[in-house]
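Reviewer 2 asked us to include a model.

Predict the structure of this chain.
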Amino acid sequence: MRVVIQESYDKMCKWAADYISARIKAHNAGPEAGRPFVLGLPTGSSPIGVYKELARQNQAGELSFANVVTFNMDEYLGLPHEHDQSYWYFMHDNFFDHLVDMKPENINILNGMTEDPEEECRRYEEKIKSYGGIDLFMGGIGVDGHIAFNEPFTSLSSRTGVRNLTTDTRIVNSRFFGNDPEKVPAQALSVGVGTVFDSKEVLILINGHNKARALAATVEGAVSQKWTCSALQNHNGAIIACDEAACGELTVDTYKYFLDIEKKERL
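Predicted model (structure tokens):
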């Protein structure tokens, strides 16, 4: 596991965006350039700065998305695209609508209005496989360490499926629904923990004091269904990009170790 500690949220986002940009460019210049670069994407507050920087690079002609296929992590069940809290709406408002060469047919988001949720999830898994899997999956985690809508005690080998949202998650997300947890959908469609960790690389963003316990559990804790993020320890291409504020629960030795390793990485 690689842990990249940055001073602030903005610097964390810049580092993550530059990393993703470099991976796309390397892919397009390499032997696999004939196939798309497959990028997994999250919603939430953590990636917004990354999306802004990637869009800036794209608009400046520094980075092309013409050969990129995206798969989003999740979507609320029962929300139409035009609902301002659907993740389809979020992704277009915060990212896709700001890219000059992103092909609409290359955007994949689970359909929250499907009449057959199980079939929709099966289809999604199959479509990911049809591209040869995901090259890089960017994600964030909740304060309880959940990835996508895989709540604590979700199987670490789970696949895309219907998820029941906990009361805590609905309370946290209620800030987007007029602070009324009852307005937050009780279910969502979500990629599984196993779906994410089948990716060649996984880049997780962790920022803020409220995520400090989750970061410590991810890096220093035991691998456990209680903290689905802890599965990162078993992934050979796992990277955590975090800010100083999220490091409050790490032991001093762990914190110094990753700072030292990254300093050598840059030399």
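The radius of gyration is 18 Å. The chain has one domain: 2-266. We have added this to the supplementary material.
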